[in-house]
Amino acid sequence: MSKFLAILKQGFNYPKNFIAGRLRESTAKLSDLKSGEGAILEVRGKKVAVYKNNGGEVVYLSPVCKHLGCLVEWNQADKTWDCPCHGSRFEAEGALKQGPAKSGLDKVNLK
Fold this sequence. Notes:
Radius of gyration: 14 Å
CATH topology: Rieske Iron-sulfur Protein
Helix content: 10-25%
CATH architecture: 3-layer Sandwich
Distance between the termini: 50 Å
Oligomer: single chain
Largest sheet: 4 strands, antiparallel
Structural class: alpha+beta
CATH class: Mainly Beta
Shape: globular
């Protein structure tokens, strides 16, 4: 029964999380990111998942989860991108770590 309740709760939270991610404004700037950190930033008018690796290289990703389109959030403790809607998790540089998504986050070319 508890699994059923968890699924039901996810179903109710999905629309809220889907919309909240799109309405949330980012106040962070690329210059604020330290090595090993990520954030959702506004870049050229678009939300972008940005990660600065330990070598200082910046990785730009689509923040859109491949499962049902919610926007991921940065998990500093685990250094992962986590989807608040259904629990998909992605490595810092976008590779799929845990589903239900079937593939990783898309790279974004800003050059």
